[in-house]
Structures are given as C-alpha cells and as structure tokens.
Design brief:
The chain is mostly helical. The chain contains 8 helices and no strands. Helix 2 runs antiparallel to helix 8, helix 4 packs across helix 5 and helix 7 packs antiparallel against helix 8. It is elongated, with a radius of gyration of 21 Å. 32% of the residues are buried.
C-alpha cells in the first residue's frame, strides 16, 4: 500500500514546481532565440549572398547556463514549500526502505548464481534501490513521449507495490527529460558549425517541454 492519506493536503504539482516550470519555459524561449540568432541573419540576407555572418554565441550561452538555471529554480521551489519538502523526504525514506527490502531479498536469491559472474560484482542493495527509481523515471518518460495515457497507467502500476510513490516517479521522469535536453545543449556548445548548434538547441526543446508536462502532472 502507498501512504497517500494526506496527499490531498499537498499543493498541486504545478504549484509545488512553479519555479522549475517557469525556468523550463524560459529555457525553451532561450533555445528558440539562440537558434534564431543563427537562422534570422540567413533569412534576412539577399538570395545571392553566399557567406552570411551569424551569431552562435547565444547557443553557447544557453548551453552554459541551462543547468544552473534549473538547479536554482529547484532550490527556490524547495525553499517555498518546507512542509512539503519534509513530507516528500519522509515519503522517499519510506519507499527507499521498501526498495531496499526488495533488493535484499533478490540479492539472497541471485547471489549464489550471479555473484562475480564475468568478474562483475552484483550491485549493492542501496545501489539496486537507487537504480530502480531511476529506471522507473526513465521508463515513464519514454512511454509519455508516445502514449501519455499508457504512461499514467504505468506510473500507477509502478507505485502499486509501495516501493515507489507517484510523485517520486514523476519527479524522476522530470529529471530524465530535462537531462536529455541539457545533453543536447551540451553538444551545441561544441557543434562543428552554427547550423548544427542551432539544430541542437531546437532539438532540446521537445525534451524540456516534456519536463514541463511531467512537472505539472497530478495523478492522485
């Protein structure tokens, strides 16, 4: 069973993550502006112009500042909701303990057969518990891209056993989507030409927009 008796007293996720959502939307605009700094001069040039001077600096700037922007927004959200932070921390401790118990039981079953196989040690109980959460978030993110309704059903299925909480899964999914966008922006910083840098900035937008959707989603 999941501990959701006081869930209705918590703020909606779009309020809980308001600063993060605002930062993500700001980042979407910055990505578009950065790409525009490359494409607009080309569009404004006369048809016969072969060499057009473009500005790739905004692509580099958005790549360098994106992660710090999101980290700052998360910290601001946490500071705005201290009581919610305490509840989430308690919830995370409960589900982490449940995942550890499951991982420990699996370890006892698998150790004799798999320990040291190919020279690779089995993950510790704590590592397995952390990996389960990351795996759940990544799977939900991937599912949400193609079928949000199916992703919602998956979240509830994953949370049904008590080892994971709905908000915990969604928060991990937000991180998975945002990190994918940040990785695209990192590539823009070292792109071989301005057009590729602009394309990478734009490719990050869909991942960042998905992070907004997941941060706003209330499933309880």
């Amino acid at each position: 069973m999941t501990a959701t008796s006081n869930r209705l007293d918590l703020p909606a996720r779009r309020r809980r993550h308001a600063r993060l959502i605002a930062a993500l939307t700001t980042l979407i605009g910055a990505c578009a502006e950065a790409a525009g700094a490359v494409y607009q001069p080309i569009a404004a040039a006369s048809p016969g112009t072969e060499n057009v001077e473009v500005n790739v600096l905004p692509c580099v700037q958005v790549s360098l500042t994106a992660a710090a922007l999101l980290d700052r927004a998360r910290a601001e959200d946490d500071a705005r909701w201290p009581a919610v932070m305490a509840w989430e921390r308690a919830q995370a401790q409960r589900t982490y303990a449940a995942r550890c118990a499951v991982a420990q039981a699996q370890e006892f079953m698998e150790q004799s057969d798999l320990s040291g196989q190919n020279g690779v040690p089995l993950p510790t109980v704590e590592q397995a518990a952390a990996m389960d959460l990351v795996s759940a978030g990544t799977e939900v993110t991937a599912r949400w891209r193609t079928d949000p309704e199916e992703a919602v059903a998956l979240v509830h299925e994953l949370a049904a056993g008590g080892e994971l909480a709905v908000d915990e899964i969604l928060d991990e999914a937000v991180d998975a989507a945002a990190v994918t966008g940040l990785l695209a922006l990192q590539k823009a910083r070292t792109a071989p030409d301005p057009s590729t840098a602009a394309e990478l900035c734009l490719s990050a937008v869909s991942h960042i927009a998905l992070a907004v959707t997941l941060a706003s989603a209330d499933l309880d």
